[in-house]
Every structure is written in C-alpha cells, then in structure tokens.
Amino acid sequence: MTAISVRNISKNFGETRALRDASLEASFAEIHAIVGENGSGKSTLAKIISGIVLADGGDVDVLGHRPNSPTEAIAIGVSTIFQEMMLAESLTIWENVFAGSDSFWKRSSSVAEKKRQTKEILERLADCPIDPDWPVSAVPLSVKQWIVISRALLQKPKVLVFDESSAALDLDATSRLHHEMLELKASGTAVIIVTHRIAELVKFADQATVLRDGVTVGKIGREEMTEENLLRLMSATTGHSARAASKEPVFVGERHPLLEASNIGLTDGAQGFDFNLHPGQIVGIAGLDGAGQAEFVRILAGIDKAPQGRVTVRDDTGMMQAISNLSDAEANRIAYVSGDRKKEGIFANLSIMENFGLALYGRHSNAAGVIDQKALREVFDREKDRLSIKFGHRQDKITTLSGGNQQKVLIARAFALAPRIIILNDPARGVDIGTKQDLYTHLRAFAAGGGAVIYLSTEIEEFFNFADRADVFFEGHLFASFEQDRIGEESILGAMFGQSEPVDMSEALEQELPSNIQPQATAS
Ligand SMILES: Nc1ncnc2c1ncn2[C@@H]1O[C@H](COP(=O)(O)OP(=O)(O)OP(=O)(O)O)[C@@H](O)[C@H]1O
Which Pfam families match (predicted)? Predict the structure, then answer.
C-alpha cells in the first residue's frame, strides 16, 4: 500500500533550482532511501514530505494529504529527524524529547511518565546511563542526536523521515539505529532515509530513489541494490564513482616527527600514552563514541587542554613548540575542521564568504587593517572550484547551502590557511561520496607536499586505501595502532571493542618510519 506519492516536484530557492522534477513512491512497511550527491535536492524532497518546505509545482500525497506545515504533517502521522539538530540546549533532556508533544498527546502523560519514557528509550538507543534531568548542553553530540531520534520515535509515526546526512553516530550506534528502523518497518511504518552511507544502505534498504541535480534519475529495488548501481546513477555526469582511490606520490623528506604528544592522559591520573605524526603522514583516528578520540584531537588542535601530558610541534627552525591553546596551534599552522559544524564550525548569521574568510582576515589585510577583499575572493574561488562547492551567491547566508556544501566551506577554509597540519574531526559527515574522494585526493596531495593529516572518522572504511596508520582509542586511551597493510575492518573493529593487545606507543616512537615515507637521499 502506498504511503507516499510525490510526483514531478519542482522547488526553487531564489535563483537556486533545488528540485526540477523529483518523484518518489514509498509503501508502508518499507525502508526507502533517498540518495544523491551534495546539493542534489535530497533534504529538500524530505522536507516537502514533512511539510517543512512547500513545493512550487507537482503532486504531493503523503498519507492521503498534502501537508502544508510541519504541524500538519505531524498531525497526520509524519515524524521527522533532521540533519541540523533542533534542540534547546538550556532545557533538560526530557523536556527536549517531549518538546511540543502535549498538543498531540493531549497532556496524556505526567512529567514522571515522560521522564521514565525518556530514560527508557534513550538508554536503549544511546547504550549508556541517562538522567532525563540533565541539561542538553552537558551531553555529547551523539547523545544529542539520539534525543532528536527519540523525539520522533516516541510519536509512533506512520511515516518516519530521517535525514541522517550528518548523523553523529559511530558504527555500533548506527547498527542500533538500523535495528530501530527495522522494528519500525515491521510495525508498518514507511521509513524514508536520506543518507550518504551507501555501503550500509545496501544492507538494509528496500528501495532507493536516486536524485541528480534536482531530478529523480532512478529508483532501485532490493534486488538491484548494489553500491555500483547506486553510484553509477548518482554520479553519471561527474564520473566520481569511476575514480579509484589510488595512492598519490609520497612525501620524501624530513625524518623527525612534526608533532609529538607525550604522556597524554584524558582524565587526571589516567595512564599516559604517546602519539607522533610525521610530515607526509595521514593518521586515521577511530574509536567507539566516548572512547576519548574526540577529546584527543581537540587537544592536538589546541582547543582543549590535556588534563595530563604535553603536545609539541616542530617549528620551521626545528625547535619543538608547546601547543596548549588555539593561538599556539594557529601560530604553528595547525588547522582544525570540526564535524559538529553547527556548534564549532559555521556562523549561521554570516554569509558563505564571511564564514570562509573569517580566519583569513589577518593574512589578507594591510597594516591599517583594511581587508583585501579581492585577494580573499581569489582564494575563495580557487578553493570552491577545488571542492566543487555549490551555491547561489557568495553573499548568501551559509545556512542556504545544503549540509554537505556547508561542510565543504569549512574544509576549504582549513586548506586556505596554508596549514602544516590539518586535523579533521569526522569531516565527511554529510559529504557525498564524490566529494569524499576529492577530499582524500586533496589530503594526499597535501601530505605528499610535506603536510601531515590527522583524520578522525566514525566510518572506518574511510581509512582503507587512504590512511598510513590507524590509531584506535578504547576506554579513554590510545589502545592500538595499525600500519597501512594492517588497516582493515577486523583489526580496527576488534581494537574498538578492546579486543587486541594494547600497543606500546613509546616503542612505536623508536621504530622505523612508515613504509611510505622514505628518508631523503642527502647530497654529500
Ligand atoms: N533554504 C534555502 N535557501 C536557499 N537555497 C537552498 C535552501 N535549501 C536548499 N537550498 C539549495 O538547494 C539545493 C539542494 O539542497 P538540499 O539541501 O536539498 O541538497 P542535499 O542533496 O540534501 O545536499 P546534502 O547532501 O549536501 O545535504 C542546494 O543547492 C542548496 O544550496
């Protein structure tokens, strides 16, 4: 039975044609994915189904209605989970879970009951103890994502729309989420999911609608659902799928570490661990949510201070300089790209250009502080071409960009800073597969030129054919380290669950350089 039938939809935002001819048919008891490159119109289509955006043209039938507002959509049984988390940070967890719910449940449940339900669902989903009275501001990004998900699930929807493009969920959490989706499907719900995680989608979606430049270019059923088929349809014009993840030429040069972290403890009194990074090296960082890896990369980037231990970077003269705050990091050309772009990355009220240029003003202004806008625009144009950022005008607000394109602006800003070390904290969340491949190519070229990369990812597949070393965190410390040829799903997953022998990183410091970094032949 058809739950959703939208046909020949068009939608413009000013001059941007977000959807030109989009159609989607989904049944009850079905998991239906919407896939496509960044900016292809996936979120816009999802928002039309949820009544958040109104179509300019075409037929919309959702559960027999054409929802004209989110409230109308909720009233007919549509729940939505969006990319950009809508949470009131100063309120408690339970207040957020039940925000706006009283009108649907007609104040049927007491505060105590709401708290009980919040605790029950969140502990199941987040797999950790939760106090419903905690303020949302105190919980990590992944728990915030679960709060938004719980809010939608508790409404027992007939249609659930899930725009997961930037979901902050690790591997284990993703499988719990898939389990919830399968349960919903079994109870008859039509689950619509917007995703870039093609490899996972192939395992559990029943149908996929593929968008390219605002047009539905195909629908793929369970039997034909392979990564190759999806990628071919998604990127027929760009040929991204054909791009092999080949290794670039490697950096030939400096033998000494560029960055060293010694005796780092993420909590006071913790057993310390060491870490090093050489020029030309790409180090992947993994771990289950809460294992310490996110805190660690923030320390390396000078954002937070290590409770214990010391981070140093070799400066241009060969001296090791301490990194204890952001200005140390900036002075030593360490750039940071956050995956939590809403909290740490973008300034929602500023334009695309302002968001890009903020950190560059110092470099492109004269002695009187006047910014050289022309020079800045040139840098922007170069970076936007490099990362294929799609937008209307430079002066449009950054929030008018699709999620993936916002993320690209932040990556472009990091490159434009001409860093020596780039630290990326799950940067590919919400970024389409073609752009991911481009990002890997840029990062490899950056490393080949003598830069060094620290790349935290919740998708360990990202490390394959890309990272020179993968360091895995477990229970608050660096637990295992794998060189290139040992980077694989089994090794990394095992370590994420604490299943391999911890390595002694102080020994690793003494060891040979990674195989891809050859010492330079010295002319004598
Ligand atoms: N509110 C808005 N104002 C202006 N332009 C918008 C708005 N919302 C979306 N767009 C534009 O419409 C196009 C499609 O955006 P949409 O968010 O639907 O893409 P998407 O496929 O979900 O992308 P992503 O994978 O990056 O999340 C983009 O070019 C985007 O910049």
Answer: ABC_tran
Residues 393, 447, single domain; the answer is no
Number of domains in the chain: 3
Among the three residues 182, 217, 242, which one is the final residue of a domain in this structure?
Answer: 242
- Is there a contact between 483 and 467 (Cβ–Cβ < 8 Å)? no
Q: Where are the alpha helices (DSSP H) in 83-162?
A: 93-97, 102-105, 111-126, 141-153
Last residue within a domain, chosen from 210, 242, 274: 242
The answer to whether residue 369 sits within a structural domain is yes
Rounded Cα–Cα distance for residues 344 and 333 (Å):
19
Residue 229 burial class via C-beta count within 10 angstroms: exposed 0-12, middle 13-18, buried 19 and up: middle
- My answer on whether 462 and 402 are in the same domain is no
- Residue 249 domain-assigned? no
208-217 pLDDT, tens digit each? 999 998 999 9
Model ipTM?
0.98
Mean pLDDT to the nearest integer, 358-368:
69
Instruction: Give the number of the atom of ligand 1 that is nearest the alpha carbon of residue 44.
Output: 18
* Residues in contact with ligand 1 (CB, 6 Å cut-off): 13, 16, 18, 36, 38-44, 165, 390-391, 400-405, 430, 432
User: Does the pLDDT value for residue 26 go beyond 90?
Assistant: yes
CA of 44 from ligand 1 middle (Å) equals: 6
Q: Which of 44, 38, 39 is nearest to 9 (CA)?
A: 44
Are residues 438 and 514 located together in one domain of the fold? yes
How would residue 202 be classed by pLDDT, with cut points 50, 70 and 90?
confident
